[in-house]
Amino acid sequence: MDLYSIKQQAFFLNLITRLQGEDQEEREYKAVVEAKQMATSALLSFTHPPPHLSTSTLLGTSPSPWGGGGTSTGRFPNSSSFAKSPLFSSSSSLKVSSIEIRRSLHFHMESSALLQDACATAVVMGGAYSLVSSFDLLTTHNFIDQKLSRKLVHVLSGLLFMASWPIFSTSLEARYFAALVPLVNCLRLLAYGLSLATDEAMVKSVSREGKPEELLRGPMYYVVMLMLCDVMFWRNSPIGVISLAMMCGGDGFADIMGRRYGKVKLPYNQDKSWAGSICMCFSGFAISIGMLYYYSALGYLQLDWGLVVAKVALVSLAATLVESLPITKVVDDNVSVPLTSMLMAFLLFGYRTL
Ligand SMILES: Nc1ccn([C@@H]2O[C@H](COP(=O)(O)OP(=O)(O)OP(=O)(O)O)[C@@H](O)[C@H]2O)c(=O)n1
Ligand SMILES: C/C(=C\CO)CCC[C@H](C)CCC[C@H](C)CCCC(C)C
């Protein structure tokens, strides 16, 4: 860096320091703000010196904006003295404005949000891959039954995905970065389901009988619902949170508990049991409340808890009723349960509760 630039940078840094060190009582506040904005912006642009700034101005031999001689008297310049300074005179081409500072700060904020979202996407993508691989290992080594493994992947994938949303930035694009994770998994399921590629771990972890084409039904609908709730509702609406809690938690535990304890079948559906449905209702309710509390505690949702419990109970009852119907062969549970929950939550909560 040449001497000119070093001197120039030192001058502006010195100016900012003096302005910041002034006693508040002695300041003419407006002049201070204007001077700091100009000096800070000038510092930001010191590599492109304005044509009118002569070397003498920068080397301090010109009349100081602090009044008196070429050096500061320690007093903050009054606004009239600014008028005399070549640096701050209204005719100066260095009429830097706070808009330039705001632009500079906006650029820095945008680029840091982009970096945060890119890192968050990579972390969650890695988490998804690790989760499926881990359950494949547990199944391969017979630590857990394949059906239980599938249901645990069903329960954990969506809930952990939803729980990861706060690590994304507050930018408007954050939800789309997050949606890349289910999108990539959707494409994986498509490729493996159509046998365009193979991934034994994925097929074994998410299919009932180990057939690749199974990936095109339940698991595919599941990741599509994750994308839908992410993009449509994100973390500032209770609708997406409750819908995913019912699909991942409620429906998942209905299967786990229903297979094990579901001896007494439903009168209108011999494939489903009272134990499974009761478990769905309670686990869906509890997980929904838990996730709503999580987002409320992080400040994303402001909820009237007196009403929330009753509303979530109604959503859970409705989703459980739909899940118990003998319609699985027409509409998969991974579609009927979240859509029912979305509709009920929308009617009871409205779109956003802030
Ligand atoms: N209310 C329920 C739901 C499920 N089950 C038990 O869990 C099994 C699987 O339930 P289901 O929801 O049909 O799971 P799948 O469709 O096989 O799996 P997925 O939803 O992941 O596609 C059922 O056969 C039944 O034994 C039950 O008893 N009562
Ligand atoms: C077996 C499943 C549904 C059938 O009812 C679940 C399928 C899961 C997908 C193959 C993987 C989905 C991963 C999520 C999009 C992201 C999870 C991230 C989290 C941090 C683990």
UniProtKB/TrEMBL annotation:
InterPro entries per the UniProt record, alphabetical: Phytol/farnesol_kinase
Chief location: plastid
Keyword annotations of the record: Chloroplast, Kinase, Membrane, Plastid, Transferase, Transit peptide, Transmembrane, Transmembrane helix
Subcellular location per the Swiss-Prot or TrEMBL entry: Plastid, Chloroplast membrane
Record GO biological process: vitamin E biosynthetic process
EC class name: transferase
Pathway per the UniProt entry: Cofactor biosynthesis; tocopherol biosynthesis
Cellular component, GO annotation: chloroplast membrane
Known EC number: 2.7.1.182
UniProt membrane topology term: Multi-pass membrane protein
Zinc keyword on record: no
Catalytic function, reaction form: phytol + CTP = phytyl phosphate + CDP + H(+)
Protein's name in the database: phytol kinase
